[in-house]
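hiii so um. not sure if this is the right channel but i have a protein structure encoded as tokens and i wanna go backwards to a sequence. like what aa goes where. can anyone help
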């Protein structure tokens, strides 16, 4: 699975291509659906995710709470396609962020960011669900991957879940190849190819 990440000067979501989270994982098809968009300006990565979900669960507000128990949209991002380490951004409809870093579930470290305003997290409501936009600064990514510069291919996956929602569900962009629910599978990420920066 591969996706082209367009270069923009300002995100215009009406013109950024979307990917559909069409893989339902380990459960039958459900009435919930989701899509994701991603673009960059050479300095920042911009994310927009949206879900059609009638029975939204939004309860968690703590920095280290498991927002995957709520209605949740997630983006797992490996700055380099040949590096197993990745960041996982998980956001609920209240804009609560859960963030982790590492290369496998057992050794991952939860990340506490002193000022989450750097991500400009903006949840929004729609007629049939909800969504979120946020920014991942390149300087933040380089704290974990110092050589990252929006040129070499990266890797990642987009997810939608809700472990304690009325309708339990697991959706992904790039197909997962495990028997039990597990988003922390670097080998199942798709490739993200950045459009070259133009002046």
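sure thing!! here u go:
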């Amino acid at each position: 699975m591969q996706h082209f990440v367009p270069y923009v000067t300002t995100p215009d979501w009406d013109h950024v291509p979307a990917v559909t989270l069409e893989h339902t994982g380990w459960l039958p098809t459900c009435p919930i659906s989701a899509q994701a968009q991603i673009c960059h300006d050479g300095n920042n990565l911009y994310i927009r995710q949206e879900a059609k979900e009638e029975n939204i669960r939004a309860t968690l507000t703590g920095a280290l709470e498991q927002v995957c128990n709520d209605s949740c949209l997630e983006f797992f991002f490996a700055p380099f396609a040949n590096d197993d380490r990745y960041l996982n951004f998980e956001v609920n409809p209240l804009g609560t962020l859960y963030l982790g870093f590492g290369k496998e579930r057992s050794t991952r470290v939860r990340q506490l960011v002193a000022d989450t305003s750097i991500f400009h997290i903006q949840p929004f409501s729609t007629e049939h669900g909800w969504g979120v936009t946020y920014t991942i600064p390149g300087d933040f990514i380089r704290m974990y991957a110092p050589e990252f510069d929006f040129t070499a291919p990266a890797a990642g996956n987009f997810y939608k879940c809700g472990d304690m929602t009325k309708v339990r569900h697991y959706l992904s962009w790039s197909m997962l190849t495990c028997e039990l629910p597990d988003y922390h599978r670097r080998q199942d990420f798709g490739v993200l190819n950045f459009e070259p920066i133009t002046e």
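oh and DSSP finds one helix and 13 strands in the chain.
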